[in-house]
Structure formats: structure tokens, C-alpha cells
Design brief:
Blueprint (H helix, E strand, L loop, with lengths): L11 H31 L12 E6 L8 H4 L5 H4 L7 E3 L5 E3 L2 E6 L5 E6 L13 H13 L12 E7 L2 E6 L6 H4 L10 H4 L2 H4 L9 E7 L3 E6 L13 E6 L3 H10 L4 E3 L5 H6 L3 E5 L4 E6 L9 H10 L2 H8 L5 E2 L23 H10 L7 E7 L4 H11 L3 E7 L4 H5 L5 E6 L5 H9 L16 H9 L8 H12 L5 E3 L1 E2 L2 E5 L25
Helix pairs in contact: 10-12, 15-16, 15-17, 16-17
């Protein structure tokens, strides 16, 4: 995984949620930029990158609605926020946690305490030191700030001691997942001084990442310049970044052709056009998965037979065919195939069988048309129409309700039926607990969790990542989580991008966009 709308994870809901506003506002936003640029220039500002340097011009539908990483959470926009913020760790091309702001870490013998040692001499872009006190502040803020989207991800951390450059994390349980957990998806670290005013930080980001925001037009455009104080600045070869909220997906390809952009998130519907235009079209590995979210605390989902009926009514291949243009794949788990946490034993446990769905509904005492559901989503979404059609085929009537404030009732667990799409997490256990745990932000049925899940996850946490038993133990936890009645997974959509030939290839870090070593050359 993010809207609160911005806590949403990528997938059709995230895209259509952005489109609901940005598609209608695209022309207005462009006009707004055009009108505002002279005024900013007159005030000494400039929404364009500096002349003479290499400039990345990135168009994204995930332009941050919030620049406070605690509020944005670990959703799709974490990639954009990672331009500004660094974290304790980051992920390499194998998915392993490697040093970022922390140059090393070490567990105690019991595995319930971990010390991160920070790189010396680092500063945030406001001049404040990057030290253990900043780490302590970031974790405590993520756990306690009222509008934090991260508190449910940090339940293993009981307290933090700050000793100079050593951040000592006291854990509530043995948990060897912490280095995977505290990467740029969950703990992007802001300057504590700037974070004293979270509302101001939300639109004036201050981090220790590879770039510094020099100009920000909320919801529309951000201009960033290379941070010379970034710990790995020597391997950042891009001087400036122009991050723009993507207009209608159909205009992205023409924008890339004309040089308005040289890099863009790409909707699968535009992939063929981008290839025909001679652009580089590529996908980054990821953990994306979409699901039907169900509240088992509300009728009719308090009857397991009704939930099973929905499982058998879902034709996953239809989602892939109609929404991903051949780039996605069906999934009944929050992990892609071949990923270490994917459980082959659980695959296709509820195959598409509408006749069986009808029998289950009849057994539960429901006649055709007897069950009427409201499917509440944040914006128009073809995924919802597919759900509506598939459930109608088994006698369940679905009314699609659009609520622009959808995030409030979703995260308050007040909805009975909704949709969600997630980017997953670098920590597989975090992905599992987010979906299936009693405090999971993606579990619409909290505090419900499936029997045996807590014990299975605890066993994974106690297993070092280099243990020969780790993969087997992790898959057992996935199997336990998939017994949940709260989610029905449907399909996985790719992290698809297009770029001009002037932008070099990107590292293949799972779910991340890493600008280390990337160059932009020539005219765009």
C-alpha cells in the first residue's frame, strides 16, 4: 500500500481516484501553472528547473496530496516522496534491506532490541542534524500523530532510545523484520524541527533525501534540485526534477513525445501507443494486488456462506483482461507468484464457480435479488462495474456509491463493502498484518483476524531472514492469513512506466524507483 485518498495503494482505485479530480481539472491545472509562473518568477521563484543541468520531467498520477510522510503512509506516492526523504534502510534489487541513513544495525541476542547506527555528519535540508533523536521523533510521530497512516505498521516498536548516532529500538516481541520494515515505504524521516508543525511540513517537506523541494504548487507541480548534502550525492546524476501531476492518461504519451515529460507512470491502456511512439516502456517489479474488502462485523457478511459465495462468484481473469491490457495477472493472494511469501498450497482455493455461489446463497436462505449491497468507493472505477456485473450473475444486487470522503469511513471500519488496491510492503510480515491483523489498516473487519494467524505471524517474526526455515514459515503465515473472510483478492496490476531515450535505465528494485546512477542526457 495510499489515498486517505492519499493512503490508498496503486491500482484502479488509486488511478481513478486521481482521475476523478485531476482528469476534470487537468486543463485548469495547466492554465493555473501558466498563470502562476510569471507571478512566482516576479517574486524570485521559478517553477522551472535551472538551465544547463540534466532535468528529469516526471508526470505521475500519484502526485502527493500530502508531503508529510506520516500522513501519506506507505501508499503509491511514497515513490515521489522518496525524492525528498531518506529512510533508515532501502531495498536493493533482490528485495533485501541495505543501508540508507543507517550505515549498520545489530540485534541483541534475544532479538527484541535492535540498534541502528546512523551515518555521521548528515543534515536535513534545513540544517538540522540527522541523528538518533530524529529517528526517535519520526517513529513516535508515526505512532502517535492523530492523522498518521502508519501507526498500525509499527506495533512491534515499544520505545526508542536516542544515543547520539545510535537509535536503540526496544521491541514488544522478537521481530527480525524491522530492517525490512523501516525502509522508505514506512519510515521516511523528516526534520524534527519542521515536523513540529505537521500542517506546515505537509506542504513544505524537509528531508535528507537526494533532492530538495524548491517550488511547490499543491496538487499540481513540484520543482526539486539535487541535494548536495545527500549521503550518496556522488551517485545522483540528475540536477533537477520537475514532478507534475499527470493529466488524463491519454495525454501522457503525447507529452513524452513532445518533451513536456521525459518520464511517466503509464496506464496499461496507453502502453501500445507509447511503444509505437518509440518510447521505452518497462515495468518495475512490485507487490501490487487488488481486492474486495468485506466487513464481517456487518450483515450479510457475518454469514461465512455469503462470503464464500462472493469468492466463487469472482472471475479474476475478467479483471485482468479488461483492466490491465495483458500486463497484469490474476491473484488470490497479496503477493505475486514466485515471491518468497506466495503460498502455492493456497492457490486457486476458490475457483470461479457461479453455480456453487448460487447454491451457497440458497443454503444461507437467500433468494436471487434478496441481498442488496452498497459498494462504496472514492471515485468512478471500472473495477466496481465488473464486481457489480459478476455479483448480479449470482443474484446479488450491488449499488455503486461514490463517496469523495471514502477514506474516513474506510479507515474507521464503518463500511460493509468496498474495494482496495495495495502496493504491498518491503516486509512480507507487514503486508500480512496490514491485511489480516486485528489492527491492520487494510482489514475492514478489525478487530477480526483468522484463527491461527497471530501465532503464525509471531513464528515468522522470530525467524531470522537468513534462516533455512524462513521461506516455509512465511508461507505458513500467508496460508493462515488467507483463511480471513475479510478480503477477496482479484488481480495484480504492474508498475508500468514510459520514458524517453534520454533517460537511462533504472535499477530493478522491487516496487521502488531508485534514481541512483540514472542519467538524463541530451535534449528531451
Amino acid at each position: 500500500m495510499s489515498p486517505r485518498l492519499t493512503t490508498l495503494r496503486p491500482g484502479p482505485i488509486a488511478r481513478t481516484a486521481r482521475r476523478a479530480g485531476s482528469l476534470r481539472a487537468g486543463a485548469l491545472a495547466t492554465a493555473f501553472v501558466a498563470l502562476l509562473t510569471p507571478a512566482l518568477s516576479a517574486c524570485g521563484g521559478d517553477v522551472s528547473a535551472s538551465a544547463g543541468g540534466s532535468t528529469l520531467k516526471w508526470a505521475s498520477p500519484y502526485f502527493p496530496g500530502h508531503w508529510d510522510p506520516v500522513v501519506s503512509g506507505s501508499g503509491a506516492q511514497f515513490r515521489e516522496l522518496a525524492l525528498v526523504y531518506a529512510s533508515l534502510t532501502r531495498t536493493d534489487e533482490t528485495g533485501k534491506a541495505v543501508p540508507d541513513l543507517a550505515e549498520s544495525w545489530k540485534y541483541n541476542d534475544r532479538g527484541d532490541l535492535i540498534t541502528f547506527h546512523l551515518r555521521p555528519g548528515l543534515k536535513f535540508s534545513d540544517g538540522e542534524p540527522v541523528d538518533a533523536a530524529a529517528v526517535k521523533s519520526a517513529i513516535e510521530r508515526a505512532k502517535k500523530q492523530k492523522n498518521s497512516a502508519l501507526f498500525g505498521d509499527l506495533t512491534s516498536i515499544e520505545s526508542v532510545d536516542a544515543n547520539g548516532l545510535d537509535a536503540v529500538l526496544h521491541l514488544s516481541q522478537v521481530d527480525y523484520q524491522i530492517p525490512q520494515l523501516l525502509g522508505e515505504r514506512v519510515l521516511q524521516i523528516a526534520s524534527p524541527k519542521a515536523a513540529n508543525d505537521p500542517a506546515k511540513l505537509d506542504q513544505n517537506p524537509v528531508g535528507a533525501g537526494p533532492f530538495i523541494v524548491k517550488q511547490l504548487i499543491p496538487g499540481t507541480k513540484a520543482v526539486l534540485r539535487k541535494n548536495p548534502g545527500y549521503w550518496d550525492a556522488k551517485n545522483i546524476h540528475i540536477d533537477d526534477v520537475e514532478l507534475t501531476s499527470a493529466p488524463d492518461a491519454s495525454t501522457v504519451v503525447s507529452g513524452l513525445q513532445t518533451g513536456v515529460y521525459n518520464f511517466a507512470d503509464l496506464d496499461p491502456s496507453q502502453a501500445d501507443a507509447a511503444k509505437k511512439a518509440g518510447l521505452d516502456v518497462f515495468s518495475q517489479p512490485g507487490f501490487n494486488a487488488s481486492n474486495l474488502s468485506i466487513n464481517v462485523n456487518k450483515a450479510p457478511f457475518d454469514d461465512e456462506r455469503v462470503v464464500d459465495a462472493l469468492r466463487y462468484a469472482v472471475n479474476r481473469q475478467e479483471f485482468v483482461d479488461k483492466l490491465t491490457f495483458g500486463y497484469g495477472e490474476v491473484t488470490d493472494q497479496p503477493f505475486p507468484r514466485k515471491y518468497v511469501a506466495y503460498d502455492p498450497e493456497s492457490e486457486n482455493s476458490h475457483p470461479y464457480d457461479p453455480a456453487k455461489a448460487k447454491r451457497l446463497l440458497a443454503d444461507a436462505g437467500h433468494r436471487a435479488g434478496n441481498i442488496k449491497l452498497n459498494l462504496v468507493i472514492p471515485a468512478e472505477d471500472p473495477q466496481a462495474e465488473i464486481v457489480q456485473s459478476q455479483l448480479a450473475a449470482v443474484g446479488i444486487s450491488v449499488t455503486i456509491k461514490i463517496d469523495k470522503n471514502w477514506a474516513t469511513p474506510f479507515f474507521a471500519k464503518d463500511l460493509a463493502f468496498s474495494l482496495y488496491s495495495t502496493t504491498g510492503r518491503d516486509s512480507a510480515v507487514q503486508t500480512l498484518t496490514a491485511h489480516f491483523g486485528p489492527d491492520g489498516p487494510l482489514n475492514l473487519s478489525t478487530p477480526y483476524q483468522p484463527d491461527g494467524f497471530e501465532a503464525a505471524v509471531g513464528k515468522v517474526r522470530r525467524t531470522p531472514l537468513d534462516s533455512p526455515q524462513y521461506a516455509k514459515t512465511l508461507r505458513e503465515a500467508t496460508r493462515a492469513g488467507l483463511k480471513s473472510n475479510a478480503l477477496i483478492f482479484t488481480y495484480s496490476s504492474p508498475n508500468l512506466f514510459a520514458k524517453s531515450k534520454q533517460v537511462s535505465g533504472l535499477p530493478k528494485n522491487p516496487a521502488h524507483i531508485d534514481w541512483t546512477g540514472v542519467t538524463v542526457s541530451g535534449a528531451n
